[in-house]
Amino acid sequence: MTTFRVKEIWRYPVKSMQGERLEETVLGKGGIPFDRGWALRDATDTITSAKKIAALLHCKARYLEGTNAGTVPHVEITLPDGSAVRSDDGDVHARLTKALGEDVTLWPLQPAEDSEHYRTKVKPSSPEELEAGLREMFAVEPGEPLPDLAAIPPALLAEVSEYASPRGTYFDLYPVNVLTEASLRHFEKLTPESTLDVRRFRPNFLLEDDEELSALAEFDWTGKKIGLGAAELDVDIECMRCVMTTRAQEAPGLAPLPRDSNIMRTLVRETGHNLSVYANVAKPGVVKVGDEVKV
Fold this sequence. Notes:
Blueprint: E1 4-11, E2 20-22, E3 24-27, E4 38-41, E5 47-48, E6 60-63, E7 75-78, E8 84-86, H1 92-100, E9 105-108, H2 115-118, H3 127-137, H4 154-162, E10 176-180, H5 181-190, E11 205-209, E12 225-228, E13 231-240, H6 262-271, E14 274-283, E15 285-288, E16 292-294
């Protein structure tokens, strides 16, 4: 039987910016502590991401120990030109706006009760406009199907139809994302001309195996529990992939990844848009790099 282990643990201090690797974490009901603890809002005061502002992926963020921004620590952001700005700097909004070419403000996580903070301020005015927006978000070309949104639990789908993220979080849908190297190997065979990297898929946990598998291994775990160290996850659905997987990434100090629309063409054709799985935390606990995964 194949043995899977935790190879990498990832946390993303600012939604859609480059993340930071951890050696261990205390996984809680809300996922990895302070994951997506900050996000940007656009000129309409709606939470935004690299789905709309691609340059976010050219920025890096890290937490500043010993600081307090209320719900989360402060962050330091390295901008595309290599300069740095802190979330508690007086000119942080202006510098981010200049670096990204969009009018933005930086926000720490707000209480779930603050519905207006999370509400999407500008909504499609017709079914046709809604479909056009979804096609842009998922980088779907004419003639290609949209992902199967019916896979999302109805209550959660209703939540993210009204709000930019589930209230009280800056996640797209779920608090935890799990990806196996087996899936990356499989996908590399499907698109050998592409430059693949775990950073394109932004998981919380990257899992290695002892057999050099080439398969969408984690898809078989949907509807099951998996143990990571002392924690347990309820694996719920496959992760629907969007335009972010195709974006260029050129953050300071990191190997550049080119823009590559072929990644989405392959996802649509071969995996039904999906790669990796979403999960909720069933049992909190410590997870370390090297921990065995139990299905």
